[in-house]
Amino acid sequence: MRYEIFGGVMPAVEMTLGKSESVYTQSGGLAWMTDGFKMETNTKGGFLKGVARMFAGDSLFMATYTAGCDDSKITFSSSMPGAILPLEIGEKQYIAQKGAFLCAEHGVDIKAVFTKSFGAGMFGGEGFVLQELSGNGTAFLEIDGSLKEIELAAGEKIKVDTGNIAAFEKSVGYSVETVKGFKNIMFGGEGLFLTILTGPGKVWLQTMSVSDFANKLRPYFPSQTSSN
Q1: Lowest mean pLDDT: which of 103-107, 135-139, 163-167, 214-218?
Q2: Residue 186's domain spans which residues?
Q3: What is the pTM of this model?
């Protein structure tokens, strides 16, 4: 499999597959493809695993596309302004924000995982459920806004605002810290909690949070009033 990521603020990834190679995405993720692909829709791992993926922001069903000939091309596009992050899954496993999964080679496994800390789950910005990527192959994640990659040394920490974590290696620790100071909490505008990521390992941060973006747009939406 070869791939090319293209586009500006609304990127897409085009994959070139050999005969019988396959990739999968959540339902509705396809943009376009050349002729000859075979499509199969299933829960990929069983019904219960599909339900768990729903809690992690993906659909119950996954669509698998298998190439019928060499040099078959298939394209998946991002659903939000941002970037697409390719990850080579193999020796390392990754944790991603809820709903980040775009598509992957057939050998990649995606499952829902619960945060180890109650505080991290309640206040870490993505709820109790995250996505874990394992297996073998290349996976692609949707990033909201611009992307920043940081490699943390063992014991090195970075404090991240809610919703700005895109993904991190599974070796990275994940916890939550309360913002200190009454005035900071009341007037700081950053919420009550910060997420702490502790090395070793790589983390990928995003400049935009979908929830914050939606809140910015909310005042511009016309209010709905019921009519009698």
Answers
A1: 214-218
A2: 2-215
A3: 0.81
